[in-house]
Amino acid sequence: MLIMRKFSPLLFLALPLIALANTAESKSPLKETPQLKQVSFSEIIPAYRATYTLLHKSDPVGKAIRELSYLDDNKIQYHYKTDISWLIFSDKRSETAIVNIENNQVIPFSYDYQREGTGRDKYYQWQYDLVAKTAIDLKNDKKITLNFTDGLLDKLSYHLQNRIDLINNPNQKRFVYPVISTKGSVKNYEYLYDGKEELILPYGLIKTIRLKREITEKKRVTYAWFAPELNYLLVKLYQVKAGAEQFEAQLSSLVLKE
């Protein structure tokens, strides 16, 4: 099943970030429901592939893909990759998290990260055992003990947890997630509700809520927009550092997978 809306390139580039109207419920690819626990998780968030246009100062510079798949062992594979090419700069990144969902809580099992392009390439691979309170850095063949595992998430799976929390409690104003880094340290990631907004995206017209994350010491602010009619799928991401725009991602298509 393919859900895709197209606008002329001139309209897409000329319009500012956003203005919009609600889509009809019959066209919404994801069924809305207030409680995940009333039905199976796969009914609330079916397997999908979302494609995003990446922009820098309103110019398209690449694309990103976020997808969720259900594995044979009842685990979930959550994947995100980006491919950017701008002037002489190139950057390809890929993140994959293998998780499970228990009582609306994401339980991470493994996290892989790869980056290549201009500058130094990077690669990380971790495995987690939250019951045993251990994590294994497979790249360096090193096991560490985790002093804190309650709600612990990796750098990708916390995105999925945030979506689940929005589905379960759309009026929540503050979200805090303990996230383990690629070096094994744990830090809280905090997002605050920052209002509602109507957007015009390559995907189409859609109503959203906006969250904000600010890291004062790095002078970095990230804004994330989620669409209630798509069961709080991330539809736009925008980041600013020291007042300078870093990047922007806008949803361009959404495909539900079998």
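the 2nd protein, sequnce then structure:
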Amino acid sequence: MLVSMTGFGRIEFNDAQHRMSVELKSVNNRYLDISIRLPRDLNVFEEKIRQTISKYANRGRVECSISYQYNGSDAYEILINSSLAAAYQQGVLQLSEALALNEPVRLSQILALPDVLKVERHSEDSEMILQYFMPVLEQALLSFSGMRQQEGQRLAEDLLQRLTLIETLKEQVALRAPFVVEEYSVKLKEKILVLLQDHTLDETRLITEVALMANRTDITEEIVRLTSHCSEFRRLLLQENDAVGRKLDFLMQEMNREVNTIGSKANDYEIGKIVIEMKSELEKMREQVQNIE
């Protein structure tokens, strides 16, 4: 089954103590390029996350965005700087006396001053983080991989239809090819007779010229190679191995090369029209192949 390099997956998980989400999206790329955005608590697991993602993707630029928050009873601790609070209080009282103000110092005023209170956030134990987080990552990757497979199936269906058309057009070229030399022979003979007028036509010379032309315009080898490339392309589309994008891309180049050669060698209007149609389909196939893993 073909796998597309374009995919998306997102999973969220929330309970009384945890809130987390994983979002994955990918586009085509020559190699596997993984970009990960992590919260501080998960930085230590970046390599493990990268290795896990690489099990689900062989090629493409994969962007992974992760959020994770622990909200357990021990997640936060309030630290009180009593010495600083006392110093603030003493300073306010001194200022009040200096200004002859008789106002009490309220606790809310002290608490509002800088650095009296500090909130410190605590992380979970690493093993506990993995216990909750890895299943969420796996679910997101399954969703992500499923979309890539579905898109790959659609690409395979489209490519098979276009490949069938290419094969049909190739057969039309093969059927037309023998008549090219025959028609050339007739036209050449007519032109020579007009030029010679009353002179005798040298049949041996004519046969030699036609033979040379037949050799120059022979596209048998190109037809055979194109047939072989189409068969291999079809086999790769239908095989179970997923990572065939590079092979398909190479075959597209070879198929395009054979079609171009057919067009340049055939020297025939009818074959030229068929070649143009084949090149148009091959270009559409090439664009699709660029998205296959």
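The longest strand covers residues 60-70. The mean pLDDT is 85.
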